[in-house]
Design brief:
Largest sheet: 4 strands, antiparallel
Order of helices and strands: EEEEHHEEHHHHEEEEH
Structural class: alpha+beta
Strand order of the largest sheet: 1-2-3-4
Radius of gyration: 23 Å
Number of helices: 7
Strand content: 15-25%
């Protein structure tokens, strides 16, 4: 684990540090590496912290993308993501990759109004209108929209979205949000279905719980954990309309067939 500390004393061979939230914790770290060319010193287990952001900086989205951090390393990433989480922001960009922290509660982040805001911005940007940099916060809808717009670009290339994380990280829920966004965009402009007949979008979304009913299990971290991988292929027409879907599954942890850990 990493802790936030300030330097009390520095010599050429040692650092004396004090933990910021526990002033009684004072400790020392020895010199690890000395750069002969620049004269820089690297002390064991010590990394430089980024300057704290003001409320104005956060309101302007200065912390939306970790690539903008002056110091980018493991403790800086963990601290930045943690700070955003405690300010009510569960999504963070790191370049084109989206980091999501499971809040373990329902948040009003996936309403029709929010979906429409990302759809509208994506449409404007795909037509060369608006700023090249998004004015909206990092969001799983932004990932899905970028994939759809690139698929509908001149070259019409197939797109892939990889959702990964440990047990309980929220992979299944993120997959649902991505599918919901893509099927919503793919269902626009499609002729109305006959009464009582499900649309392609509804059939695709309703297939997901069937797989979960057979492939979920209780683990130490998650009472309803997906113990299988899924490759979901959505097919679109050249006009961008959803035509259908194909799902392939594969078992990730065969060890659980023969052995269950305590509590699972």
């Amino acid at each position: 684990a990493w802790i936030l500390a300030e330097v009390l004393k520095r010599t050429d061979n040692e650092l004396e540090l004090q933990q910021i939230d526990k002033k009684e914790n004072v400790f020392k770290r020895p010199l690890e590496v000395r750069d002969e060319e620049t004269g820089g010193l690297k002390f064991e287990g010590v990394e430089l912290a980024n300057a704290p952001l003001s409320d104005e900086d956060r309101a302007e989205g200065r912390d939306n993308d970790l690539i903008t951090l002056p110091h980018l390393h493991e403790p800086a990433i963990l601290h930045a993501v943690s700070e955003r989480f405690f300010h009510g922001k569960i999504y963070t960009w790191t370049g084109p990759v989206l980091i999501a922290v499971n809040p373990f509660q329902r948040l009003p982040l996936y309403t029709d109004e929010i979906l429409e805001s990302y759809r509208s911005e994506g449409l404007f940007r795909s037509q060369g209108m608006g700023n090249s940099k998004s004015d909206l916060d990092p969001h799983v809808f932004a990932v899905a929209d970028r994939s759809y717009r690139q698929m509908m670009d001149k070259e019409r290339k197939s797109q892939s979205i990889l959702i990964s994380g440990e047990s309980g990280a929220g992979k299944t829920e993120s997959t649902k949000f991505v599918m919901s966004y893509l099927t919503t965009l793919g269902g626009m402009g499609v002729e109305q279905q006959k009464e009582g007949e499900l649309s392609v979008m509804e059939r695709v979304l309703q297939s997901n719980p069937v797989l979960e009913a057979f492939g979920n299990a209780r683990t130490l971290r998650n009472d309803n954990s997906s113990r299988f991988g899924k490759f979901i292929e959505l097919g679109f027409s050249r006009a961008g309309h959803l035509m259908g879907a194909k799902v392939q599954t594969y078992l990730l942890e065969k060890v659980r067939i023969a052995f269950h850990a305590s509590g699972e």
